[in-house]
Amino acid sequence: MIVGDTGTFAIESGMLQSYSRPSLRALGLFVIHVGGLRYGVSESAATLMANSFEEVRNRIARRGLHAAPFSDEPDLCWASDGDEAFDDGSYILPFDLRERVRLIAFKCGENGLHAPPSLRDVMDTGRRPLSHSASMARVL
Description:
This protein is α+β, with helices and mostly antiparallel strands and about 140 residues long. Helix content is about 15%, strand content about 35%.
């Protein structure tokens, strides 16, 4: 299932097997699309879903309130957050700028340096209705 517009920002998830333990939720795939590129491991059994879903839920609840302790900039980094879903070297840095959100995404190569072709910088217009956030919350 894809929620959003893969050309700007979308979350794609799929479930292979569900679990009764909330700390696991399901085995599946969780990737994030930014500026037309996919970030994360796009395989049907890439990760256990609990961490990824909880992080999305928390980010929606704290929208506009992300602040890094060392600056006036937002809480960095969304991905990679230690979850197997982003073992492909993906990083997504969200910046809350009043009513707008800026996402900078990139992948690192085997040398640990960012791969320039993977760099995307997307700023929403601030005109998206709240129903967009609500629709993502329903997916969770």
